[in-house]
Write a sequence for this structure.
């Protein structure tokens, strides 16, 4: 949580808070990925962070716990965002 908070500009972050809902940018998530690799000396792909967009899901994934629900929720969220963007383009 401390790493995520620092990357997002010292925002208060709960374990279930979606990184994107907190305003995280792709560049910030790349920074988070690098810090996770440095801090925990383990391989973390940027896709792992996008597919597990909160601390709870990401820690479960990195520790090998089942996170199928988190992946499903992330996919649903991405689909909603694509719909919203598409609708905005149609209005323009």
């Amino acid at each position: 949580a401390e790493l995520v908070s620092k990357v997002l500009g010292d925002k208060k972050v709960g374990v279930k808070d979606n990184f994107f809902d907190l305003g995280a940018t792709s560049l910030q998530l790349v920074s988070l990925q690098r810090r996770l690799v440095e801090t925990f000396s383990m391989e973390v792909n940027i896709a792992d962070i996008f597919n597990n967009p909160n601390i709870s899901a990401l820690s479960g994934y990195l520790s090998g716990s089942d996170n199928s629900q988190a992946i499903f929720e992330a996919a649903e969220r991405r689909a909603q965002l694509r719909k919203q963007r598409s609708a905005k383009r149609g209005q323009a």
